[in-house]
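User: Can you model how coenzyme A sits in this protein?
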Amino acid sequence: MSWKSENMELRVITAKGIAVKIRNFEMPDIRRVMEIEEQSFLDGDAELYLELYEEWREGFLVAEKEDRVIGFVVMVLPPEGEGRVFALAVDSRYRGEGVGRTLLKAAFSVLRKIKIGYVLLEVRVSNVVAQRLYKSMGFVEIGFVPFYYKDGEGAIVMRKVL
Ligand SMILES: CC(C)(COP(=O)(O)OP(=O)(O)OC[C@H]1O[C@@H](n2cnc3c(N)ncnc32)[C@H](O)[C@@H]1OP(=O)(O)O)[C@@H](O)C(=O)NCCC(=O)NCCS
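Assistant: Here's the modeled complex, given as structure tokens:
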């Protein structure tokens, strides 16, 4: 699927008062993305992230603080016409400062711009922090997939109308 390329660059003060820049992922960011990913115990690897970037560049955003990447969100566009959050993570030193929420808001604005009507995601049953964030942003639980993750944990499927 190819969409007209449109670069994002937003300077935002998060609700918790930290100044971040939200912009599109660029290749040299992969090292920081993988460092954050490893702290966050997500299931991705660099090859997969770069493949998703090639597939839909506008769907991969990073948050930067003082020229350092401190978080990222990766979305995919399945053929069914919805958006899907593939991964979201914030450097553990910067969690709880509103960066995750800011990344999601920026991601949803990208989806709205191309007239996507709703967004789906999967979240680990044990990840109550992320579930709280998603619920506070209007996501509702719509299903459960047992053994979804490599380590056998199940996933709650959540959906939000944009
Ligand atoms: C989930 C994650 C991305 C949230 O990012 P963040 O920048 O820390 O989140 P924010 O500061 O924007 O907080 C947003 C909301 O998340 C929830 N939250 C954040 N930290 C929390 C904590 N320690 N305990 C409980 N809820 C918490 C709250 O609902 C918070 O809203 P509030 O501040 O209005 O109460 C981050 O914790 C992370 O990277 N976790 C590891 C990777 C991960 O789990 N990704 C999601 C996979 S589905």
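A couple of observations from the model: The chain is about 30% helix and 35% strand. The mean pLDDT is 93.
User: Helpful, thanks.
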